[in-house]
Amino acid sequence: MLKINQMELGPVQTNCYIISNDAKECLIFDPGEEADKIIGFLQKKQLTPVAILLTHAHFDHIGAVDTLREKYEIPAYLHKLEKEWLGKPNLNGSGKYSMVPDYRLKDADILLDGEKQLEINGFKMDVFHTPGHSPGSVSYSFGQEGFAIVGDTLFRGSIGRTDLVDGSEKKLLQSINDSLLTLPEHMILYPGHGPETTPEQEKRSNPFLRG
What we know:
The chain is α/β, with parallel strands linked by helices. It has one domain (about 5-210): Metallo-beta-lactamase, Chain A, CATH 3.60.15. The protein contains 5 helices and 13 strands. The chain has helices spanning about 35-45, 65-70, 90, 170-180, 200-205; strands spanning about 5-10, 15-20, 25-30, 50-55, 75-80, 110, 115-120, 125-130, 140, 145-150, 155, 160, 190. The strands form 3 sheets. The chain has a 6-stranded mixed sheet with strand order 1-2-3-4-5-6. The protein has a 5-stranded mixed sheet with strand order 7-8-9-10-13. Strands 11-12 form a two-stranded antiparallel sheet. A hairpin with a 4-residue loop joins strand 1 (about 5-10) and strand 2 (about 15-20). The longest helix has 12 residues, at about 170-180. The chain is globular. The N and C termini lie far apart (about 40 Å). One of its GO terms (molecular function) is hydrolase activity. Its cofactor is Zn(2+).
């Protein structure tokens, strides 16, 4: 049985998720900022991180990546379509906002390519390419555990913005309909911001998905 802990980090309260197993190993999803806060939590819970997984490379999801991977000597995963984004403020968006520094991070250690199964130290998940919010957005589904990490693709009652670099509302809606709403109706979807939801709830009440 996996445990999932949520932390709200940085100026726009991005959800960082820490998923741990019985062996006290963990995966870190979207460490947006406040590396010291994440490290303090890991130490308190006596967790050993084995990888960082990014749903996409916008600034509010990547700020603590370099600090964490250098401290713990772990790889960072990112879709290949955003290979250059970590090091370029004009792509990751940090150059657009004065509330954060210009992020020029090291390249991702492992690039994801398309939809496939991924296993890291016994953590098994399906990776879905869900572009639209950004070209390399991905969602990570832990089917046996009944939850998925969906980044900024879908929110409770809303959808991701598409006015940033290479965003596309058409692709976003297709990603949601083809990859997320086809998941089991009561699967818990953990978004990049705000509270969790389910496919059933969004089919029923999300105004952006009607018609």
